[in-house]
Amino acid sequence: EQRLVMSMGSAVPTAVQRRVQQSLTLAKRCTALQRELERAIVEKVDATKEVKELSQELERANQKLGYAQQPYNYLVEVLHQSELKLEESKSSEAVASAELAEALAALHNVSHEREAMREDL
Asked: How far apart are alpha carbons 117 and 121 in whole angstroms?
């Protein structure tokens, strides 16, 4: 660019020459900053992935540490989960028993009606 500016020689006024030189300098700086920005974006994406992986690894390690230091917590948690499943099963059994009782009552009513109809015939 210096050669370009110099080749224009004295035919170009100094103010224009200075503007051309400044434009070229700014264009170079913009290009360099654009490349730097692209590198920074790639580094950010890589760093974000690494942070996520490390966070997951830390979470797994903390969970294992918790189980190793206090194994009874694991047993308590398993027992709690089993109790919750038992309660769900009991409530399902109660609902099913109620439905069965209703069905048996309906069957009994239908049987009586059938017997009454037979007697009428």
From this structure: 6
